[in-house]
What does this fold into?
Amino acid sequence: GYFITLEGGEGAGKSTQARRLAAALAAAGVPVLRTREPGGAAGAERIRDLLLSPGSWDSLTEAMLHFAARREHVMRSIRPMLAAGAWVICDRFADSTLAYQGAGQGLADDTWARLCDLTLGDLQPDLTLILDLPVEAGLARAAGRSAADRYEKLGADFHARIRAGFHDIARREPVRCVVLDAARDAEAVYASITETLRQRLGAKL
Ligand code: Z5A
It folds into this structure.
């Protein structure tokens, strides 16, 4: 199976596109797990509740909570499904920690890298789709959908750093990462996702 992650700021359309992609793969007879972070396993969902509810954390504690949730997710859901031959479509993964806790909240790159080593071993996404759109547009979309969580309330400057953080990741890892213009309508974004999967992974979509 392939491990595909969707990344980007608030309201970029990750969940919308992950749902559609997973449904199309399933319809094509591909075994698929659609999952998300923080979350994706029972213990990880409990940590998600801690992370998204009001309150504040020491920044390293917060990063380690994301990695603790990720470890549960990887060991109990992602690795077993990949080993069974499924494709895993994951809404956010370790790049979100580098963008939010790193570019957003000052976590050092080498601390992030050490936490990745410890938590993930050799697991890396095969392909990362970074859905990119202006901060104001993303926040407006997210606001239209549900009450703001702790991260959505952090303000436009914070979200601008997140966007720049994802661009940095894409520059550093051009083979794994593809930046897609997410300001277009959902249909056009999906067409660019399927085109990317055909080119990069030979997907028959
Ligand atoms: N976080 C972190 O800090 N560190 C980490 O390591 C990880 C996460 C893994 C999880 O929140 C929070 O945790 C997240 C980062 C932090 N920050 N926040 N907030 P979440 O899982 O609840 O939410 P999210 O990941 O940010 O996703 P989102 O805001 O729900 O957005 P989305 O999934 O990208 O978008 P969507 O739900 O598909 O669409 C949002 C709305 O826009 C919805 O009404 C759609 O119908 C609409 N939409 C979607 N696509 C379009 C297009 N193309 N045009 C117009 N409207 C659209």
